[in-house]
Amino acid sequence: xxxxxxxxxxxxxxxxxxxxxxxxxxxxxxxxxxxxxxxxxxxxxxxxxxxxxxxxxxxxxxxxxxxxxxxxxxxxxxxxxxxxxxxxxxxxxxxxxxxxxxxxxxxxxxxxxxxxxxxxxxxxxxxxxxxxxxxxxxxxxxxxxxxxxxxxx
Length: 153
What we know:
This protein is mainly alpha-helical. Helices cover 74% and strands 0% of the residues.
């Protein structure tokens, strides 16, 4: 009986399928009744709210998370950028304890989309240095937005 209950409880986690099918109401219901939510299920919910443009709900859920990782922060960051709120994205970016190439490229993309190319060139220089560091350890990041920014300037 315990095994059956554990199996049932695991089925209650919101998943990418709920979000991709735009069934955010069901996903939130499953999230709320789940006995425990981990950082992954919380990130999926934040992404779901961002996808439908409800950044207030995304931020509220993000703020209530007991555990956050760089993916959590980047998920919120992407949500603001994709919903055209560069100001809030910059605030989140400033709050981040850990940033990675994805964080920087998201902000750079936000500036590029917002047509503030003078600032995006500064970020490009920082990101280029980071990219070179990554290449020196064998990682070859492909960031298409850098090419677009360079062409626009």
